[in-house]
């Protein structure tokens, strides 16, 4: 493009010096070329964006289906996925054809415009030679410069649609690159140990028109257990996301002690939080790699075996072929659900967090695995500020405070016994989970302990 522009400017300057009238006639064609190139370029860009979106959707669905092959087979959904795949490929083919059509139109139109300009200039020059206002030598010199212009003109004409198409293809990447990166290096350094975690009047929405949390407030005293219960979709997991600072609240504040966590060094803040979720995140690699993931410093085998022992994971890791160096496979596919959960708990022990967050950590486990994981969690919760999300109320009845979240608000809080007595929906949850006992027979926190 740069070379073509230089050739274009240089040739036009020489042509103006030679005969400005002939040059003016030639320049009249430029708006025509622009009028041809711009709509084609705009359309090419839109098609490229659509094609890229379709390709992204196809890739995402293909990856999902391949990763869930067992579900597809057990659901006998091969024909459904085959048909879906054919439709996606047909859509990609359709956009590919449209791209090819616009590419094939742009070149001939530009060439035709250039040839029209050449013929027009030649006819005008021949007329002036016939009238004696221009010499034959000047006209042929002018035409030679004009021929030199055709190459740069054609290159620029092809460049505009190509640039538009590339812009469309990179649109999603550019949007990602424009996202502001988290600031993980500035802010105050604090020690969360012995500090009160308080959430005051927090509002939050992923989309402005769909509020998730409204006026949520709670406190977690040091070394206490605070639990969150309530219907699915009420906003409990969103609270954890705000505490981890994956998002910032729209209004209100989250403080540790007297300091807003928005002013705390992000890396140092997250290092003091341990999260164990329902689907324990285990990465492809070794047991050792997963235990030490994201942690600074070197850890001895003795330290790793110790945390595995505390998480009731030592026995099954010892039986593995390579012990700590055993490969667990992609997403920990070589481990059972209970084993993955205990590895995640061992990682939390090694992290030694000041604040522990448990997001339905035993919800998807069988009875035996749940018992082992619950034992490990009880150890892990000792002498830490612990926040728990649970649908199984039996796991939170002994919490110091239970906050009932529904429709994004706190509709009640207190101990298990207090909520059974004073909160109708919590009481209904208890009755449903414990077999609908009579009021006097409903389990208390002390009894379940």
UniProtKB/TrEMBL annotation:
Membrane topology: Multi-pass membrane protein
CDD domains reported for this sequence: ABC_6TM_LmrA_like
Limits of the ABC transporter domain: 197-432
Localization per Swiss-Prot or TrEMBL: Cell membrane
All residue ranges annotated as the ABC transmembrane type-1 domain in the record: 1-165
Bilayer-crossing regions: 20-41, 105-126, 138-160
Keywords: ATP-binding, Membrane, Nucleotide-binding, Transmembrane, Transmembrane helix
PANTHER family noted in UniProt: ATP-BINDING CASSETTE SUB-FAMILY B MEMBER 10, MITOCHONDRIAL, ATP-DEPENDENT PERMEASE MDL1, MITOCHONDRIAL
Protein name, entry field: Xenobiotic-transporting ATPase
């Amino acid at each position: 493009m740069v070379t073509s522009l230089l050739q274009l400017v240089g040739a036009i300057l020489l042509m103006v010096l030679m005969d400005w009238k002939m040059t003016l006639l030639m320049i009249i064609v430029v708006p025509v070329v622009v009028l041809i190139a711009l709509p084609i370029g705009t359309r090419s860009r839109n098609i490229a964006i659509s094609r890229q979106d379709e390709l992204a959707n196809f890739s995402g669905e293909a990856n999902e289906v391949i990763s869930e092959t067992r579900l597809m087979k057990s659901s006998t959904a091969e024909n459904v996925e085959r048909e879906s795949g054919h439709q996606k490929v047909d859509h990609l083919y359709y956009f590919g054809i449209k791209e090819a059509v616009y590419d094939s139109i742009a070149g001939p139109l530009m060439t035709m415009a250039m040839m029209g300009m050449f013929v027009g200039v030649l006819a005008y020059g021949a007329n002036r030679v016939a009238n004696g206002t221009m010499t034959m030598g000047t006209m042929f010199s002018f035409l030679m410069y004009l021929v030199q212009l055709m190459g740069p003109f054609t290159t620029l004409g092809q460049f505009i649609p190509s640039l538009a198409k590339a812009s469309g293809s990179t649109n999603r990447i550019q949007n990602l690159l424009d996202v502001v990166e988290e600031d993980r290096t500035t802010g105050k350094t604090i020690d969360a140990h012995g500090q009160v975690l308080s959430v005051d009047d927090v509002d939050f929405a992923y989309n402005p028109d769909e509020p998730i949390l409204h006026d949520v407030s709670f406190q977690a005293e040091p070394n206490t257990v605070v639990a969150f219960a309530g219907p699915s979709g009420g906003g409990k997991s969103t609270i954890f996301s705000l505490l981890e600072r994956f998002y910032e609240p729209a209004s209100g504040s989250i403080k540790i002690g007297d300091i807003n966590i928005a002013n705390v060094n992000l890396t140092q803040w997250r290092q003091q939080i341990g999260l164990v979720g329902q689907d324990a995140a285990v990465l492809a690699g070794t047991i050792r790699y997963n235990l030490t993931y994201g942690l600074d410093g070197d850890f001895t085998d003795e330290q790793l075996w110790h945390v595995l022992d505390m998480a009731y994971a030592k026995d099954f890791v010892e039986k593995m072929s390579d012990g700590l160096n055993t490969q667990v496979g992609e997403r920990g596919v070589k481990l059972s659900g209970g084993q993955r959960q205990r590895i995640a708990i061992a990682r939390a022990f090694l992290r030694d967090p000041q604040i522990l967050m448990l997001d339905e950590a035993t919800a998807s486990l069988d009875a035996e695995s749940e018992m082992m994981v619950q034992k490990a969690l009880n150890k892990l919760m000792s002498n830490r500020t612990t926040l728990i999300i649970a649908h199984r109320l039996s796991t939170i009845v002994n919490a110091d405070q239970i906050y009932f979240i529904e429709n994004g608000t706190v509709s009640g809080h207190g101990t298990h016994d207090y909520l059974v007595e004073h909160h109708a929906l919590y009481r209904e949850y208890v009755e449903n989970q414990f077999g609908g006992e009579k009021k006097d027979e409903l389990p208390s926190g002390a009894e379940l302990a």
